[in-house]
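Fold this complex.
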Amino acid sequence: MKSLRIGLVGIGTVGQGVYKNLEKNADLIAERCGIRLEIVRVAEKFWDRKRVVDVPQAKRCTEAAEVTRDPKIDVVIELIGGTTIAGDIILDALKHKKPVVTANKALLAHRGEELFAAAAKNHTNIFYEASVAGGIPIIKALREGLIANRIQSIHGIINGTCNYILSRMAAEGADFEAVLKDAQAQGYAEANPSLDVDGGDTAHKAVILASLAYGFWVDFDKVHIEGIRSVTAADMQYADKLGYVIKLLATIKADGGKQVEVRVHPTLVPKGHLLASINGVFNAVFVRGDVVGDTAYYGRGAGMDATSSAIISDLVDIALDMKFNAHRRVPPFVPHKMYGKLKPMDDVISRYYLRLDVVDKPGVLAQIATILGKANIGIMSVIQPEGHEGQKVPLILMIHDAKDSAMRAALDKIDKLDCVRSQSVMFRVESFE
Amino acid sequence: MKSLRIGLVGIGTVGQGVYKNLEKNADLIAERCGIRLEIVRVAEKFWDRKRVVDVPQAKRCTEAAEVTRDPKIDVVIELIGGTTIAGDIILDALKHKKPVVTANKALLAHRGEELFAAAAKNHTNIFYEASVAGGIPIIKALREGLIANRIQSIHGIINGTCNYILSRMAAEGADFEAVLKDAQAQGYAEANPSLDVDGGDTAHKAVILASLAYGFWVDFDKVHIEGIRSVTAADMQYADKLGYVIKLLATIKADGGKQVEVRVHPTLVPKGHLLASINGVFNAVFVRGDVVGDTAYYGRGAGMDATSSAIISDLVDIALDMKFNAHRRVPPFVPHKMYGKLKPMDDVISRYYLRLDVVDKPGVLAQIATILGKANIGIMSVIQPEGHEGQKVPLILMIHDAKDSAMRAALDKIDKLDCVRSQSVMFRVESFE
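Structure:
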């Protein structure tokens, strides 16, 4: 039986998962694909760290180049993370005609175009199933399973940490900071949680999904990103009363023309929708295609095992492509002309949830409604919890479809009113219509 | 640009979907995969029927052999259905070295092994993404995306008609017959609904999923099949009270050893589980792998458009394999040794929901509990709606894990008690633990 000789760069959590699971299911995988997948070398700077797998001395090395440049290695898995050295390692592997598997979403979001061009130039390939939604085969689904479709929209819960925090906030009525602290203690959030809770990680994955679906490389720096720090327990309760839950969604949407929205922000999701029922660290991606209609994909978005399932499936694709000398049978990214560019956030139309802190006195609602009315922005419904005259009370408004620029301009005016006591909170509402 | 010359046999609903959507998205598909997909001939006996697509005279023919034997045709799509002529057509195409795409689950469930052997003998291939769960790329997910995994279990809602009927029964408190009639009037159920509501269609798909996942061909005739005719509005209400909804599930499960359960029957699903929230004609497949953990796949399980999305993705796989002369890069079925055979239904262990019609008099529960106790079968909980002494009342029992054979033997005894007035109803309960 043929074998695929694999070089692994970086043996942290995910690397150990790949090593462990390739050993565990080696025979089954070989029976299924007809090729043995063998890790023949592992490059790692810090061999003294404790690990769940025991890499024999003969397979250990410390320099990535010992993997990327060895002619006896067929494929390189990059798992060191970061956007600088990892990029150099991948470029070096490609230069040596080796296909690369990576889970590095930050790197792909920032330098995907460059890396994919290098892969094309060297007649080799990059696979990255593990970069989005962990073990869920969403890249394969978009790239192959749904190839017949113009993708109309993608809505993803693709950051487990945020979904864990928001799920607990909704279930327990707890505030962000308290749940974050507990999530950190339990290992569901990093000591520095910014990449997760401020939305950057979700945006990295959104850029990858959108670029793949729409065939033009989405500029990460132009993606609108809001994290979940501004969501309060009170927002969860108001949303619940209105029939929604609040999720951090990546929203990717094509209009009829040549523009695609890509944005990341807390979003009110109707309770009856599938995405509203995705709780804890689980991920889900909801994809609407013009031929297939609505589809969804659910699973663990992170973790050594789930992520390694995705990496191994990429390795099998590479092994089969090598067997048939079909190195770029499915390229990592195919530009196409159906959709051309990112829609400016100013032009994005959405419904909104507004929470204002106002002084409870006559005429307040009239002042706010007048500003919205003049901007031609319609109010769908209002919740004003009972308060005491002259005291601060929250005022919740649900707003009809309006342009982002118009909504922001109106909010600026509202925030300047005497009766509004702190900066208003605005979340978008998705109806999935 | 290269092109793939497609011959279509049968242009009913799904055939028209393939024709229409290949035309509609021809440019996009060609951009994405680098090959033009062109239907060059359509074989159909009844050209006088009304259709939503207009097939030019030059492409029309009436004999399947004009498609299967034409050297200018690269691939054959079989969409006539049935298990006899359709099989002959596929065998003829394979003999002429043409890969085949089919949506024919009945044919594959009954004759898959024979057809796949013929494909191997002729060094060509069969693709069948559309045969299970319509537009959901579940075959690709199992065959490729989850290839690293020992599949621990698959639970599928894979018949839209049954799920539509059960969803409406649950929502409206209506009985089976009434909803079926309405479903027929609205086109959600066939005039002869047996294949759907008696579970056969679900079992066809279960055989395909199980065979693919476990690497041995599952004998359709040995699959335990129960349909949904025995589910009543009252059962839905009792299930609801107990925290469940009733779904027709395909259940496929490996034990630690060499046996796999494959069974189709109404199943109580806990309300909090993802599958409980799948309503209407939608399908969902819940897959647990030893590496990836829990994953799920959701979408439309039928319809001209959704099904054609799956067929077109198969066509692209074939087109790419042809381009690289990699005709059996991914075979339709790979036998492997991890799991060997079907577990006899007698040995299957499950929880149960029992509904008995008993006479409301002292000692009834004691008699029933005694039979169960002697068989070492534990009662989890009991619902007995208030009745009038001496009259018939329902008695609902939730039963702990027990072997199917033991449960059936105990039920036989219970049904013979004087106090039990009609045949008991038994549904299985899935805990997804």
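Chain B has a mean pLDDT of 96.
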